[in-house]
Amino acid sequence: QVQLVESGGGLVQPGGSLRLSCAASGNIISFYIMGWYRQAPGKQRELVAQITSDGITNYQYSVKDRFTISRDNAKSTVYLQMNSLKPEDTAVYYCSAAGRFWGQGTQVTVSS
Q1: Where would a tag sit more exposed on the chain, N or C end, judged by fewer CB atoms within 10 A?
Q2: What pLDDT is recorded for position 110?
Q3: In angstroms, rounded to a whole number, what is the distance separating the alpha carbons of residues 33 and 28?
Q4: Would you say 29 and 92 are in contact if contact means Cβ atoms under 8 Å apart?
Q5: Per-residue pLDDT reduced to its tens digit, 21-56
């Protein structure tokens, strides 16, 4: 059974940084497209960034040049480095494997 566990969320001031981690069971990140999604209150879940097994990345326009997705196959972990955070980045962030398997989410709050 695939398990994804996110960590690294928290409260940060505007302009600050956070790094989210997604630890995956087994070696699935080598085979699946891994993605970070987010869902703000009252809004639909949206794709933030994704990375293929070949290392090709794709970002939502609003986070491009501020967020970086990466993965460490040896640790079966996917990361989301978030810089220059804005209040509108506040949401629950979810890790997903191929849009089929999901973690429980981690809260990111950007506020002064």
Answers
A1: N
A2: 98
A3: 9
A4: no
A5: 999 987 777 788 999 999 999 999 999 999 998 899
